Structure formats: C-alpha cells, structure tokens
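Readers of this paper often ask what the protein records in our data store actually look like. Below, we set out a record of this kind in full and without editing:
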Amino acid sequence: MPHIAAPAPLAVIVMGVSGCGKSTLGTLLAEALHCPFIEGDDFHAHAAIEKMRRGEPLCDEDRWPWLERLGHSAAQSIAGHGMAVAACSALRARYRDRLRATIDGQVRFILLENSRDRLLARLAQRPGHFMPASLLDSQLATLERPLTEEDAITLLSEAPPEVLRDAVLALLNRRPSKTGAQAGIC
C-alpha cells in the first residue's frame, strides 16, 4: 500500500452507478486513511428507499435532502478527523456541486465505471438490497461523467479492490491538478 499523505482536510466521495463497488472501495480507503466511512445509502429517507424498492427512480426532490444529510455528515467527519470517505452515486454535476457546497472544503470524486453487463452481474449478487437491477439503466442514463474542472479520478472497477485503493491513494498523494486526473486501472 502506498504511503498515505493525502491532504487534509479532505472529503473523498466514491461515486458511480449501483453495483460499481463504491462501498467496497470506500471502506478500504477509509481504513487506509484512518477516518470514518460514510455509507450514502444510510442517509436515504424511508420513502425514497421504498420508491426504489418499487423500481421507481428517484427524482431531484428525493435526492436534495439526502445529499444535504450526507454532506453534513462528511463535514462533521472532516471537523473531527480531518478527512471523510463516503460512497454516493453523485450521478449529476449539480449533485456533486451540492455536496461540495454542503461539505465546504476540499472534495475529490472517484468515479468507478464498468460495463452494463458486469454491473448487472454484480447487482444479481446483492439479494435483498433495496436498489433493484431494473433501475441500472436509469442510473446509466442519468450519469454525467465529471468534467475535467471537477478534478475527479476515474477508474475501471475490474481490478481487485485493494489495487483500486492503492491507485486512489497514490493519486491523492499527488497535488490536485487543475486539469483533473484520469486513471485506466483495469
């Protein structure tokens, strides 16, 4: 594992569609960075979870309070630990903007990508999760890949989670660029 010297205060948001590995990578990053892991799914309102269980995609009105709660939790983690790692779909630029505004500190997004077929296979291995595979296509359609000015790291989530963790840690150790970071880990 690379030496950990990521700048603090910092919130690292592992983002992407359902089944891409956000929670797995986020947990490993939080352990390596010695800070709490914040599971975005834990901040959904009960009504939003029920809506997803019924196979209905969330709308912005469902997401705004969720993003606020998640952002406040990340800000509290930064205040207490200097860092935060969270898993959150953050599919649209305006959702990422809302998180940045709520956290009010340095935020780095890590986009995990994979093929639709691979994502569906992963979702099939998550029985009992409230997010059904039937919503994957709506998430893929909603996803706005981070633009260069968002200074995001993009990774293909085919590599073992520990390899992805080490790649993220190495990239976080570099000074954030004004042009963004892209990595083709596979």
Observations:
- The two ends are 17 Å apart (CA to CA).
